[in-house]
Design goal:
This protein has helices at residues 2-10, 16-51, 55-86, 92-101. With 102 residues, it is mainly α. The chain has one domain (30-101). The protein is elongated.
């Protein structure tokens, strides 16, 4: 009897294979979006680095800030891709993001 109750508690309205497909599609869309944001941020950073006057204090600080922002985006992208392929969250990447953000 207890065996039937545990099986009933684990049943879902939506089959697990559909949930896996939806999750995979969501991760793929998220990865493509993050890649696009990273590429856009890279070109915007280059443009802003060239146009900033004076270059020495302001341009360099903005350039370093923009590069660190791009690294954060790419670390999140790496985490999404590893979740998509391995099915495991790599929490050490969030530690790297926290160190960069600090």
């Amino acid at each position: 009897m207890a065996k039937n109750e545990s099986q009933d508690g684990e049943k879902s309205i939506i089959p697990a294979k559909y949930i896996d497909v939806v999750e995979d599609v969501f991760h793929a869309i998220l990865a493509i979006s993050l890649l696009g944001i990273g590429i856009g941020a890279f070109f915007y950073s280059g443009k802003r680095l060239i146009e900033t006057q004076p270059f020495f204090p302001n341009g360099m600080i903005q350039g370093v800030n923009d590069i660190l922002f791009i690294v954060i985006i790419l670390e999140i992208l790496r985490t999404v891709i590893s979740r998509f392929t391995d099915g495991v969250y790599q929490l050490d990447k969030f530690l790297i993001i926290g160190v960069i953000a600090a």
